[in-house]
Every structure is written in C-alpha cells, then in structure tokens.
Design the sequence.
C-alpha cells in the first residue's frame, strides 16, 4: 500500500479536490484488487478508482462537508493481494484544492476593511475566515 497526504485548512464555503490520474493496473474492472482511494482524515470519500486509465484523467471530489476545518487529504493505492502485481502502477499530478469562501470571508488582514475612525483593531480570524474588530482603548 502506498499513500500520499497533505493537510489543508478549508475556509467556510464550498471546496473541491481535483487531480489528474493515470493508472496501469494488473487487475482492472474490479474493486477487489488494485484500488486507488481518496481519504479525508483517514475515511474514504467518493468512489474508488479501480480501472486502468490509459490516458490522464481528471477526477474531482467534494470537500464541502469539511468546510471551515483543518483536514488531511490522502490518496492511497493498494494492490490488496500479493499476486498479479506486475503492472506499472499509479501516477498523480496537479493535486489542487479549490475553495469558494462565502462573501465577507478573509484569508489575511488585508482582506478586511480598515477602521476609518481609527478606534478599532481590525483583523482576520484564522479559525472562521471572518473579519472582526475590537476596540483599541489606546487609540480612542
């Protein structure tokens, strides 16, 4: 079994995982052997990829159920047996996570509107991806 993984912080809103895959499998057309799976926090999501893909194929997976969370995304290939494993295997390329944050969300302080009166400290919350402000008693 081979696994590659990465941890990402998803903002609130819709999110999608996309990557290109090429598979040369010894046992194809069955999900009993030679299976590629996508996982979020160790749990398989979406359909298993268990067919030979002779041409680069783009696949996508919905990550929206984990919006606003830090998640570990994994791609795992398993032959599931010790026989008929003489194929070339699996290649993955252009692994990308796309997220559409709802209106009003921020990624960095510069995304938030400044306080024109100068009495508030404006910041972007890394946990909620929302702009917030607190009174600055030294300025007011």
Sequence:
């Amino acid at each position: 079994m081979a696994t590659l993984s990465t941890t990402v912080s998803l903002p609130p809103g819709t999110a999608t995982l996309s990557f290109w895959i090429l598979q040369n499998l010894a046992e194809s057309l069955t999900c009993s052997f030679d299976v590629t799976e996508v996982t979020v926090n160790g749990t398989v999501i979406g359909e298993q990829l268990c067919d030979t893909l002779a041409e680069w194929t783009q696949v996508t997976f919905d990550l929206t159920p984990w919006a606003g969370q830090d998640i570990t995304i994994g791609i795992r290939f398993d032959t599931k047996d010790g026989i008929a494993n003489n194929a070339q295997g699996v290649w993955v390329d252009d692994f990308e996570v796309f997220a559409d944050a709802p209106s009003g969300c921020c990624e960095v302080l510069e995304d938030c509107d400044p306080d024109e009166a100068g009495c508030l400290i404006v910041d972007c919350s890394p946990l909620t991806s929302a702009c917030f402000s607190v009174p600055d008693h030294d300025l007011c």
